[in-house]
Write a structure and sequence with these properties.
By secondary structure, the protein is mainly α. It has a domain at 38-62. It has four helices and no strands. The protein has helices at 2-19, 24-28, 38-50, 53-61. The longest helix has 18 residues, at 2-19. It is extended.
């Protein structure tokens, strides 16, 4: 778990280094209407990652129950 949190911290630092000095206009710029801006991509990642919080909290608390479907091996 420690390595995992260190990796997350490193990704956060890299993101701030790469995008932290951009203006709001730069973050929201889109080359065309079919492409997401940097801000939209980052917002999407935050929203998706937040869905993991309840699972992580239950794992930490020792109360996580694996869903039935997860017990079935995946077939290609």
């Amino acid at each position: 778990m420690k390595n995992w949190t260190l990796t997350l911290d490193d990704i956060t630092r890299q993101t701030l280094t790469e995008f932290g000095s951009l203006t709001s206009k730069q973050l929201n710029w889109k080359p065309n209407s079919n492409t997401w801006s940097i801000a939209q991509n980052l917002d999407h990642l935050v929203i998706v990652n937040e869905t993991y919080y309840p699972v992580l909290a239950s794992l930490k608390a020792g109360t996580h129950k694996t869903p039935f479907i997860a017990k079935i091996s995946f077939m290609v």
